[in-house]
Sequence to fold (547 residues):
Amino acid sequence: MRLYMAVAVGGFRRYATYRVATAAGVFANTVFGFIMAYTYIALWDERPRLGGYDQAEALTFVWLGQALLMTCAMMGGGFGEELVDRIRTGDVAIDLYRPVDLQLWWLAGDLGRAAFHLIGRGIAPMVLGGLVFELVLPADPLTWVAFLVSVALGVVVSFAVRYLLALSAFWLLDGTGVLQISMLTGLFFSGMLLPLTLFPGALGEVARALPWSSLLQIPADVFLGKHTGWGLIRAYAFQAGWAVLLLGAGRALQTVATRRVVVQGG
Amino acid sequence: MGSGATGPVGRVWQLRAGVRAYGLIVMMWIRSTMTYRASFAMTTFGNFAATAFDFVTILLMFAHTEALGGYSLPEIALLYGLAGTAFGLTDLLLGSVDRLGRRVRDGTLDTLLVRPVPVLAQVAADRFALRRLGRVFQGLLVLGYALVVLDVDWSPLKVLMLPLAVVSGAAIFAAVFVTGAAFQFVAQDAAEVQNGFTYGGSTLLQYPPTIFAKELVRGVTFVVPLAFVNWLPALYVLGREAPAGLPGWLAFLPPVVAVGCVGLAGLAWRVGLRSYRSTGS
Fold:
């Protein structure tokens, strides 16, 4: 456990090193936040209370999206490319004979990264957005805690999906296409482009049931106080359910994949 | 660059050499891409789909409303198509320049400096990605849809406005890309600032100017002149008033603005390149 803590701290510090890159990222997040906020204002001017949100809630959703974009790695990134590279070059063989669990190792590193991104890339855009637009911030400190729990679960789900996709490199070798698909689905089905409550009919129902809704839609709804009491438990159960299922699938695939590496001789 | 060429003749010679070298490097990357045809087809489609999601978002918005900022879906499609095509062309031809910061950081830029080819041509052609055609196709498709469904009172001038807007728009975006790259000589980790202007800018232009604050519209007219990419020409084609109380004749300026921007970007690039100091080892 201490080992994985150390890996997580390492992941945090690794990303914290690049201060200029972080500032530049905050700038990009803020630019996109402004553009999206104006489009949402135009849409909610036409249709107040669309998707169950009033305008202030919709704007809060926009800035939460910018704050969590990197934290929940909705565009992919984080460890994915690195792991794909290590699989392609065969370096993963070294990782496999280390006396640590491959999946937990990368999970710990990714949690550290997410913690940094929440602080470094999340707070500043949210504050800047709040200075210009009227946002809804929870009054109850417990809601903030509930939100952070939901974000943590979202990061684990996000990790589990990206881990599964990265493992596909054992078979495909070139992971570019898979990483690209992961970015598309992550952006679209997390609610980053538009809240999932606005998706019509069957598309909406499917989108809300897919794991990616754990990345933004659910944390944002928790933040906005849409999930309370048993509703909150149900939201957590949904996120945790996907996390367990996807981590399990990743573990199974990893077992198959490592057998394959042995057969190939590394 | 120290080729010893001076004066206008030298400049033209240099430009031709640059374009030729750019073409050669690009051809090499295309050949290497075509080795993996399946991967190329997949990533091109991926690029197409990635940008298509932007438009799907707009379609989803229009599932709930008839108009956004007073603009109908076909009108927004025209804005989107013009900006998307112009940006797609620039991204295809120059999209690699945002990797410059990485080259400065790891010192591989030095290799480019010792070759007898303009550095900008090398940086622009580096890892040329033909798959970015997907983005151009997507822009053209939406533009085509807009032109089919739009009810415009066409005049020769309005017809001419469309190709003019795409070419000038691509040149304006190119200037933004190169200026951003020049900035990376100073701030190597700042690639995301550039993304804010390039990808952010193209997203901004997909929506009508009426939904944004007046100061923002004026900012992207006079400071970073993105409004000339599509807003001003498209609003002329649609027979609408220029945004934020700007004069209507601005709609005819995109080519002039494009030339000015490219000139300034060239200057910025020279200053950036001259200030470059190798990381050394």
Notes: Residues 14-274 of chain B form one domain.
